[in-house]
Design a protein that fits this description.
It contains four helices and five strands; from the N terminus they run αααβαββββ. By secondary structure, it is an alpha+beta fold. Strand 2 (about 85-90) and strand 3 (about 100-105) form a beta hairpin. Helix 2 runs antiparallel to helix 3 (about 45-60). It has a single domain (about 15-130), classed as Cathepsin B, Chain A, CATH 3.90.70. A five-stranded antiparallel β-sheet has the order 1-5-2-3-4, with helices on both faces.
């Protein structure tokens, strides 16, 4: 896995999700513009539109994403059980009051797309990217 780092920062501006997806599926972050824009313009796009754009981006490359919401303790335990598959963990960003995404494997963070590498403050969602 080649680690891709985010190039945009802040609430509704960050492309951390694009960076972790590109790291997992092996593409350049520059290829994600259309779905990035849907997450970055809260007044123009709903979460539903952004999710669809993300799923369409992945599908066009032969992947799908499954998302699950868990409490922090359950998410940590589930993350430990995936030893061979990188999983996306979503939680509060240490940079502000918004969510951030990182990659875990075997219960350990293996990639934070933010340059400071501080990870996330607790877990709210687990996302699995699978080949279709």
């Amino acid at each position: 896995m080649k680690k891709i780092f985010q190039t945009k920062f802040g609430n509704h501006k960050s492309n951390c999700l694009a960076a972790v997806l590109c790291s997992i599926i092996g593409c350049k972050i520059e290829t994600t513009f259309k779905f990035d824009a849907t997450w970055q313009e809260p007044n123009e796009f709903s979460d539903e539109v952004a999710r669809k754009a993300t799923y369409d981006f992945l599908k066009s490359r032969g992947f799908a994403m499954l998302s699950y919401q868990y409490n922090d303790i359950m998410a940590r335990n589930i993350a430990k059980s995936f030893s061979e598959i990188p999983i996306i963990m979503v939680g509060k960003s240490p940079q502000g009051n918004w969510n951030h995404t990182v990659i875990y494997k075997s219960g350990q963070m293996i990639h934070d797309p933010h340059p400071d590498g501080k990870g996330i403050l607790g877990f709210e969602f687990i996302c699995l990217v699978v080949k279709i």
